[in-house]
């Protein structure tokens, strides 16, 4: 017997949208925003978490909050079918702020934010040492326009 995948309905999507804006919103605030009872919001959040749709709660920081940090974009080529293994390893590197699959010559794109050039250098070495990573190209982000 196979379990049908859970597809978030319109209420789930509204709850998720509010959490994207304010991941620290209380149940009462979410319930008020989407027009349902707190218990309904709690049960929806529990279900979304159990099904792996919500992976956690985090903060978003203004992009230019720290002008002293090193920011870069790294394109990564993966050998064969090692993509899932490589993604798991990349998610464990705290300086990688986002990770995306892509098409074209590169398999993955990672956004990197490091506190110093030495930290940045360490991240580059760490990524390049992951089994399954065959090639990478990194571009430093110099200024936002």
Descriptive key words:
Alpha-Beta Plaits; 2 domains; four-stranded antiparallel sheet; alpha+beta; globular; 5 helices; Arc Repressor Mutant, subunit A; 145 residues
Number of strands: 4
Fraction of residues in H or I helices: 25-40%
Q: Sheet with the most strands?
A: 4 strands, antiparallel
Distance between the termini: 54 Å
- What is the succession of H and E elements? HHHEHEEHE
Q: Could you report the average pLDDT, rounded to the nearest whole number?
A: 89
Radius of gyration: 19 Å
Characterize the overall form.
globular
Spatial order of the strands forming the largest sheet: 2-3-1-4
Q: What's the CATH topology label of the largest domain? A: Alpha-Beta Plaits
CATH superfamily caption of the largest domain: Lrp/AsnC effector binding domain/regulation of amino acid metabolism (RAM) domain
Q: Provide the domain count.
A: 2
Count of helical regions: 5
Briefly note the structural class of the backbone.
alpha+beta
User: Which percent range describes the beta-strand content?
Assistant: 15-25%
| Uncertain segments | none
Q: What is the name of the CATH class of the largest domain?
A: Alpha Beta
**Architecture of the largest domain, according to CATH?**
2-Layer Sandwich
């Amino acid at each position: 017997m196979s379990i049908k995948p859970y597809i978030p309905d319109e209420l789930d999507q509204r709850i998720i949208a509010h959490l994207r804006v304010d991941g620290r919103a209380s149940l009462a605030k979410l319930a008020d925003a989407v027009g349902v009872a707190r218990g309904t919001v709690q049960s929806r959040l529990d279900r979304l978490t159990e099904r792996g749709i919500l992976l956690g709660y985090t903060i978003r920081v203004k992009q230019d909050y720290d002008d002293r940090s090193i920011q870069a974009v790294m394109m990564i080529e993966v050998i064969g079918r090692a993509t899932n293994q490589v993604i798991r390893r990349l998610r464990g590197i705290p300086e990688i702020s986002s990770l995306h699959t892509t098409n074209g010559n590169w398999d993955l794109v990672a956004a990197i934010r490091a506190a110093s050039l030495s930290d940045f250098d360490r991240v580059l070495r760490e990524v390049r040492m992951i089994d399954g990573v065959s090639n990478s190209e990194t571009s430093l982000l110099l200024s936002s326009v």
